[in-house]
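Hi there,

I know you've been waiting on this one. I reran it after we fixed the sequence typo, so this is the corrected version. Both the input and the resulting structure follow.
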Amino acid sequence: MKRFVIILTTLMLLAGQTAFAVEHRKKVAVLDFVLQGTGYETDAMGKFVSEWFITALVQEGRFDVIERGLMKKILEEQKLAMTGIIDQSTASKLGKILGVDFIISGTLLKLNNTMEINSRIIEVESGSILAAENVKSYTSVTLQDQVIALSEKIMSNFPLEGFIVQKTAASVTIDMGRRSGIKKGMKFMVFTDGKTIVHPVTGKVLDVEMIKTGMVLIKNVRSNLSEGEVILEYFENAIKYGHRVRSIYEPKQQITKAVVPTVKKPKAKPKKKKPKKKIAKNPSADSKKAKEIKQLFIWLKSDKPKEIRKAARQIAKSYNKHPGLMKTVELVLLKRYKEKTRNRNHTDAMSWLCNVLGASKDLKYKKTLETVKENAPARKLKSYATKNLKKLK
């Protein structure tokens, strides 16, 4: 009996793993794009766009894309066309016939010297449009480049999500690999679930609060697992085993406009140049400001609490809207506020960092000040965090 239970448990675990692996990959069908406008090289251009889309999606590795020839055969049996002009109800019916989760349809528009590709992503189960994307450029940009750019936009609507299954000091392992479409160099946001947001009347769960804990960069990809380097942690040991991860969309393909030729004006006769008066070189106000900001960054990253405190005082007074300095202030505070030391200057420095966040009056620092208020080892630091929380709008 005991042996039977062990075997049954093993089979259930394997089944669960298989179901989870399949969940990462969605089945997609791409219909032929409809041509609008005139001046196309061939009437088959809509089919070419469809083929390029299929290739781009397959190369990403995150979708099971139905092969065009197979789709054509199925649709011919059902006496349906492969055209991209379909309404949402027809798309839902078509998707169920093809056995896919999503359908991508769209149009190709050519007007004068511009080319525009419009696409819609239709969810088969609900029959609703999940997203609509488009790219537009001058004809000097190849149509295939436009398709690649549009396919990358489509990717942003399908972020990869998984879990951290192993954590060391500076690296993590996540439960997705090559089979899920993970590639070396991809970045993932790490987060954990916070409070559940429930409707006060219906009791329906509307959303779950997302608490970001850091960011990882994928360094090594295996079949079902990937290893990543921790490149950002919002506070010490913020990323933990069991936290969730979500891929970050970073566009690679850039669509640029064609260079419009300029009409050359006839050269005017050169005028005699007057000798310039020598002006004594004085450092400009901008130069002084840049040097000052650079020094503040150096002090913030210093191991000496007095230098951190000096920087914080100046930032609170003059630079509490500078994005780079404010981000560094927040990171230094989260990284060092829990340090146990008898050095009073350290507590003063951390308290002044709280003052900087309070002086900004920006609500986005509320979570950081609440964290310091709840977990700071020094009573004085807790007091400063509480006081500055009240200043945030």
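Quick highlight: The chain is about 40% helix and 25% strand.

Best,
R. S.
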